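Fold it.
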Amino acid sequence: MLISAPTLFISSVTPRAEEFAIEEQSRGFILKMRLSLVVAALLCFTTWMSVVHATHGPVPLCCMQWSNTRIPLKRIVGYTIQSEGVCPIAAVMFQTKLGKRICSDPNSVWAKEAILKVDEEKEKENIARENEECMEE
């Protein structure tokens, strides 16, 4: 009768090999889980940023109320008409030579005069620019 020694030898090594294989599988599983977690976090962040930007967009510069300040029309260099859709009130935002902004009721007489004055000056500037371009040619 022969007792097979290799069988005894293999059986004593097998538990360690199995432990090593299980350890390697666990490491692989943990790495996959970490990668999945990072990808999920990036996906959530990207989705959140796109939703926030799409819904709110850049914050507009809005007039929250009208000012009763009436400055000389010669100090006004530009204006922006503000609608109620994006901002809380309809208004005209006037820009002064010093860079200040004044919000006014678009239906007020003063605001209408200021708008006309700015439009007339812009038109004069455009005509002068066109004349200069014609003279250069």
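The chain has two domains: 1-59, 73-136.
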